[in-house]
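Lab notebook page, bench 4
Experiment: in silico fold of construct C2
Operator: M.H.
Input chain length: 134 residues
Purpose: comparison with the prior construct
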Amino acid sequence: MICAGQTPTGTPPAGGTQGTGLAPNIASLLCYICAPITGIVFLLIEKENNDVKFHAWQSLVFGIAYIAIVIILEILAAILGMIASVLGIIVGFFIPIVMLAAFIVWVVCLVKAYQGERWRIPIIGDFAAKKVGV
């Protein structure tokens, strides 16, 4: 006997859940929550849904690129600050700008993933699409 809210054995639940057990738009959104860590987790879990895999790859590369850029700017600001403090201040000025830009891109990725869209970050999105094969 099937009660309300249950599906017969052998049929997938409505909403198209896959290897994660989540709806694809929710799994795609969660890929970005703690990039690049959640990207790696969803790459390991999800084997079937190309949308989730795309967002996982994009999240992974975006997170790594963001961390690398911020570290490089911090080191550059420290080195140039030792040479001439004005240069360190100028480079250090760009760090919050990069952080703000990354935050805006991150929010756009969250919204687009929840809407079920495959929004591509320039360069990173093309790489992710190639990795997934879409």
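Observations: The chain has five helices and no strands. Helices lie at 24-33, 37-45, 50-83, 85-114, 124-132.
Next step: discuss at group meeting.
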